Amino acid sequence: MTIHHYIASKKELPLGMFGTKYTLKTIKELEFERKSKRKKAINEDPIKFYETEEDAIGIYISELTPGYEDIKSKFKNPFVYEAIGTLHVTGEGIRALFNYIDQNLCDGEEIEIYSCSDGEEESEKENSLDAIINLKKLKFGKYIQLDKKNYVKQISEMFCLEDKQYIVVRK
């Protein structure tokens, strides 16, 4: 079953791909790097080249897909977007999401996050999964203190988004 992840803000947020690390290379350059001796006509248009699998993991922030507007009822904030990525497991996807949030939050603002299975947008959220992450006070919930220099990495190693979970991230 597909789990959708949504974020909401009181202001418009930038759309697009975030968190990936790539360089632009032509097939010819890649072939040269592999020292291939093939003499075929090669497309000269540059393509995205990722050094590692982790470099290719990021998030894509988009407008809501038509038909999913009911999800807006889960949020206080008016600007609601879909966050697409590997966010149901700890790791690079969560890191990309929290880097994006950190870069787009100003002091005193908050971003809400909600995840739910496809078709469950009108179902009640699971209150026991609610959490507050305060980036200014470096607190995750009531008890977890975050490291001042590595809090995004720390969050990405211990946290993932679950079905019917609501999170508030404050700065």
Write a structural description.
The chain is of the alpha+beta class and 171 residues long. Helix content is 17%, strand content 29%. It has three helices and eleven strands. It has helices at residues 27-34, 92-104, 151-158, and strands at 3-9, 16-18, 23-25, 47-49, 59-63, 79-85, 110-117, 131-134, 139-140, 144-145, 165-170. The strands form two sheets. Strands 2-5-6-1-7-11-8-9-10 form a nine-stranded mixed beta sheet, covered by helices on one side. The chain has a two-stranded antiparallel sheet with strand order 3-4. The protein is globular. It starts with a strand and ends with a strand. The model has no long low-confidence stretch (mean pLDDT 87).
Question: What secondary-structure arrangement, pairings included, does this model have?
Answer:
Blueprint: E1 3-9, E2 16-18, E3 23-25, H1 27-34, E4 47-49, E5 59-63, E6 79-85, H2 92-104, E7 110-117, E8 131-134, E9 139-140, E10 144-145, H3 151-158, E11 165-170
Parallel strand pairs: 8-11
Antiparallel strand pairs: 1-6, 1-7, 2-5, 3-4, 5-6, 7-11, 8-9, 9-10
